[in-house]
Amino acid sequence: MKVPKLPKQIVLDRLILRFLRPDDAESLHVALSDAAVMRYWSTGPHDTLAQTRSYIAGNMPDGEYPALGIAERAKGPDAPAIGWVSLWEKRDGIGEIGYILRPDCRGKGYAREAVATVIDYGFASQGYRKIAADIDPDNRPSLRLLEALGFKQEGVLRAHWQTHIGIRDSVMMGLLESEWQERASVPPGD
Protein backbone atom coordinates (compact mmCIF):
# COMPACT_ATOMS: atom_id res chain seq x y z
CA MET A 1 0.00 0.00 0.00
CA LYS A 2 1.31 3.41 -0.97
CA VAL A 3 0.33 6.38 1.18
CA PRO A 4 -0.11 9.64 -0.75
CA LYS A 5 1.58 12.76 0.51
CA LEU A 6 -1.23 14.61 2.24
CA PRO A 7 -1.18 18.39 2.64
CA LYS A 8 -0.16 19.60 6.10
CA GLN A 9 -3.34 21.66 6.39
CA ILE A 10 -6.44 22.59 4.39
CA VAL A 11 -8.50 25.51 5.70
CA LEU A 12 -12.20 25.46 4.77
CA ASP A 13 -15.04 27.79 5.73
CA ARG A 14 -16.04 25.78 8.81
CA LEU A 15 -13.26 23.24 9.21
CA ILE A 16 -9.52 22.86 9.32
CA LEU A 17 -8.16 19.57 8.01
CA ARG A 18 -4.68 19.00 9.42
CA PHE A 19 -2.42 16.18 10.51
CA LEU A 20 -3.44 14.37 13.66
CA ARG A 21 -1.47 15.22 16.82
CA PRO A 22 -0.95 13.29 20.07
CA ASP A 23 -3.09 15.85 21.92
CA ASP A 24 -6.10 14.86 19.76
CA ALA A 25 -6.40 11.56 21.64
CA GLU A 26 -8.73 12.81 24.37
CA SER A 27 -11.18 14.38 21.90
CA LEU A 28 -11.05 11.38 19.55
CA HIS A 29 -11.53 8.96 22.45
CA VAL A 30 -15.12 10.22 22.56
CA ALA A 31 -15.66 8.54 19.17
CA LEU A 32 -13.30 5.62 19.51
CA SER A 33 -14.77 4.51 22.84
CA ASP A 34 -18.39 4.81 21.67
CA ALA A 35 -19.92 1.39 20.90
CA ALA A 36 -22.37 2.81 18.33
CA VAL A 37 -19.64 4.70 16.44
CA MET A 38 -17.31 1.70 16.48
CA ARG A 39 -19.94 -0.90 15.58
CA TYR A 40 -18.89 -1.00 11.93
CA TRP A 41 -15.23 -0.10 12.46
CA SER A 42 -12.53 -2.73 12.04
CA THR A 43 -11.87 -2.77 15.79
CA GLY A 44 -14.12 -2.63 18.82
CA PRO A 45 -14.61 0.38 21.09
CA HIS A 46 -11.54 1.49 23.01
CA ASP A 47 -11.52 0.87 26.75
CA THR A 48 -8.80 3.34 27.67
CA LEU A 49 -7.35 6.65 26.56
CA ALA A 50 -3.97 4.89 26.28
CA GLN A 51 -5.49 2.54 23.70
CA THR A 52 -6.74 5.54 21.71
CA ARG A 53 -3.33 7.23 21.91
CA SER A 54 -1.68 4.12 20.52
CA TYR A 55 -4.29 3.72 17.79
CA ILE A 56 -4.12 7.29 16.49
CA ALA A 57 -0.31 7.10 16.40
CA GLY A 58 -0.82 4.92 13.31
CA ASN A 59 -2.82 7.74 11.75
CA MET A 60 -0.25 10.48 12.34
CA PRO A 61 1.99 11.72 9.48
CA ASP A 62 4.58 8.95 9.83
CA GLY A 63 2.09 6.23 10.77
CA GLU A 64 0.83 3.41 8.58
CA TYR A 65 -2.41 5.23 7.65
CA PRO A 66 -1.77 9.00 7.83
CA ALA A 67 -4.99 10.94 8.23
CA LEU A 68 -6.14 14.51 8.30
CA GLY A 69 -7.81 15.43 11.56
CA ILE A 70 -11.09 17.32 11.24
CA ALA A 71 -11.19 20.38 13.54
CA GLU A 72 -13.82 23.08 13.88
CA ARG A 73 -12.31 26.31 12.55
CA ALA A 74 -14.43 28.51 14.84
CA LYS A 75 -12.69 26.95 17.85
CA GLY A 76 -9.31 28.31 16.76
CA PRO A 77 -6.08 26.99 15.28
CA ASP A 78 -5.40 24.67 18.21
CA ALA A 79 -8.88 23.11 18.24
CA PRO A 80 -8.80 19.35 18.88
CA ALA A 81 -9.75 16.92 16.13
CA ILE A 82 -13.39 15.79 16.18
CA GLY A 83 -12.69 13.07 13.62
CA TRP A 84 -10.47 12.31 10.68
CA VAL A 85 -10.46 11.43 7.03
CA SER A 86 -7.78 9.26 5.47
CA LEU A 87 -6.76 8.52 1.91
CA TRP A 88 -4.34 5.86 0.76
CA GLU A 89 -3.43 4.29 -2.55
CA LYS A 90 -5.13 0.93 -2.85
CA ARG A 91 -3.31 0.25 -6.12
CA ASP A 92 -1.87 2.34 -8.91
CA GLY A 93 -4.43 5.01 -9.85
CA ILE A 94 -6.98 3.99 -7.21
CA GLY A 95 -7.32 5.63 -3.82
CA GLU A 96 -9.36 4.41 -0.88
CA ILE A 97 -10.98 6.72 1.64
CA GLY A 98 -11.96 6.25 5.27
CA TYR A 99 -13.39 8.57 7.91
CA ILE A 100 -14.76 8.80 11.44
CA LEU A 101 -16.51 11.58 13.34
CA ARG A 102 -17.49 12.10 16.97
CA PRO A 103 -21.21 11.41 17.50
CA ASP A 104 -21.83 14.87 19.01
CA CYS A 105 -20.53 16.48 15.80
CA ARG A 106 -22.74 14.58 13.37
CA GLY A 107 -25.64 16.14 11.49
CA LYS A 108 -23.73 19.36 10.73
CA GLY A 109 -22.37 18.37 7.31
CA TYR A 110 -18.79 18.15 8.62
CA ALA A 111 -18.15 14.64 7.32
CA ARG A 112 -19.50 15.52 3.88
CA GLU A 113 -17.37 18.67 3.71
CA ALA A 114 -14.19 16.91 4.85
CA VAL A 115 -14.66 13.82 2.69
CA ALA A 116 -15.50 15.92 -0.41
CA THR A 117 -12.36 18.00 0.14
CA VAL A 118 -10.16 14.91 0.35
CA ILE A 119 -11.85 13.45 -2.75
CA ASP A 120 -10.97 16.68 -4.60
CA TYR A 121 -7.40 16.35 -3.36
CA GLY A 122 -7.16 12.70 -4.41
CA PHE A 123 -8.31 13.38 -7.94
CA ALA A 124 -6.56 16.74 -8.50
CA SER A 125 -3.27 16.24 -6.65
CA GLN A 126 -2.77 12.48 -6.67
CA GLY A 127 -4.11 11.82 -10.16
CA TYR A 128 -6.40 8.99 -9.07
CA ARG A 129 -8.84 7.74 -11.68
CA LYS A 130 -11.05 6.25 -8.96
CA ILE A 131 -11.61 6.50 -5.23
CA ALA A 132 -13.11 3.52 -3.42
CA ALA A 133 -14.60 2.87 0.00
CA ASP A 134 -15.23 -0.40 1.83
CA ILE A 135 -18.39 -0.15 3.98
CA ASP A 136 -20.33 -2.55 6.20
CA PRO A 137 -23.74 -3.10 4.53
CA ASP A 138 -25.55 -2.15 7.75
CA ASN A 139 -23.73 1.18 8.07
CA ARG A 140 -26.54 3.16 6.44
CA PRO A 141 -25.29 6.66 7.42
CA SER A 142 -21.93 6.03 5.76
CA LEU A 143 -23.54 4.54 2.66
CA ARG A 144 -25.89 7.56 2.40
CA LEU A 145 -22.94 9.96 2.68
CA LEU A 146 -21.03 8.23 -0.10
CA GLU A 147 -24.11 7.99 -2.33
CA ALA A 148 -24.74 11.73 -1.81
CA LEU A 149 -21.18 12.36 -2.99
CA GLY A 150 -21.77 10.30 -6.15
CA PHE A 151 -20.28 6.94 -5.18
CA LYS A 152 -21.89 3.87 -6.72
CA GLN A 153 -22.15 0.40 -5.28
CA GLU A 154 -19.86 -1.88 -7.24
CA GLY A 155 -20.45 -5.12 -5.42
CA VAL A 156 -20.63 -6.99 -2.15
CA LEU A 157 -17.77 -9.07 -0.83
CA ARG A 158 -19.39 -11.80 1.24
CA ALA A 159 -17.90 -12.77 4.63
CA HIS A 160 -15.04 -10.34 3.88
CA TRP A 161 -14.12 -9.12 7.37
CA GLN A 162 -13.74 -10.78 10.75
CA THR A 163 -14.53 -8.02 13.26
CA HIS A 164 -15.45 -7.58 16.90
CA ILE A 165 -19.13 -8.11 15.90
CA GLY A 166 -18.43 -11.24 13.86
CA ILE A 167 -17.89 -12.05 10.21
CA ARG A 168 -19.21 -9.25 8.03
CA ASP A 169 -19.89 -8.60 4.38
CA SER A 170 -18.42 -5.51 2.74
CA VAL A 171 -20.08 -3.17 0.25
CA MET A 172 -17.57 -1.85 -2.24
CA MET A 173 -18.33 1.72 -3.29
CA GLY A 174 -16.53 3.56 -6.07
CA LEU A 175 -16.37 7.03 -7.59
CA LEU A 176 -14.63 7.72 -10.90
CA GLU A 177 -12.75 10.96 -11.46
CA SER A 178 -14.90 11.64 -14.55
CA GLU A 179 -18.09 11.26 -12.45
CA TRP A 180 -16.73 13.68 -9.83
CA GLN A 181 -15.85 16.24 -12.50
CA GLU A 182 -19.27 15.85 -14.11
CA ARG A 183 -20.96 16.55 -10.76
CA ALA A 184 -18.79 19.63 -10.27
CA SER A 185 -19.87 21.03 -13.64
CA VAL A 186 -23.60 20.80 -12.87
CA PRO A 187 -24.99 24.13 -11.59
CA PRO A 188 -26.59 23.98 -8.11
CA GLY A 189 -30.28 23.11 -8.21
CA ASP A 190 -30.04 21.05 -11.40
Compose a concise summary of this entry.
With 190 residues, this protein is α+β, with helices and mostly antiparallel strands. The protein contains 6 helices and 8 strands. The N and C termini lie far apart (38 Å).
Helix content range: 25-40%
Structural class: alpha+beta
The number of helices is: 6
| Uncertain segments | none
- Assembly type of the chains comes to single chain
Query: Approximately what portion of the residues adopt beta-strand conformation?
Result: 25-35%
Number of strands: 8
Q: Quote the average pLDDT.
A: 93
Report the end-to-end length measured between terminal Cα atoms: 38 Å
The strand line-up of the biggest sheet is 1-2-3-4-5-6-8-7
Please state the CA-atom Rg, rounded to the nearest Å.
16 Å
- Succession of helices and strands: EEHHHEEEHEHEEH
Shape: globular
Largest sheet: 8 strands, mixed
Describe the structure.
With 190 residues, the protein is α+β, with helices and mostly antiparallel strands. It is 29% helix and 32% strand. The chain has helices at residues 25-32, 35-38, 49-57, 110-126, 140-148, 177-184; strands spanning 9-11, 15-19, 67-72, 83-91, 94-101, 130-135, 152-163, 166-176. The protein has an 8-stranded mixed β-sheet with strand order 1-2-3-4-5-6-8-7. Strand 1 and strand 2 form a beta hairpin. Helix 1 (25-32) crosses helix 3 (49-57). The longest helix has 17 residues, at 110-126. The protein is globular and about 40 Å long. The model has no long low-confidence stretch (mean pLDDT 93).
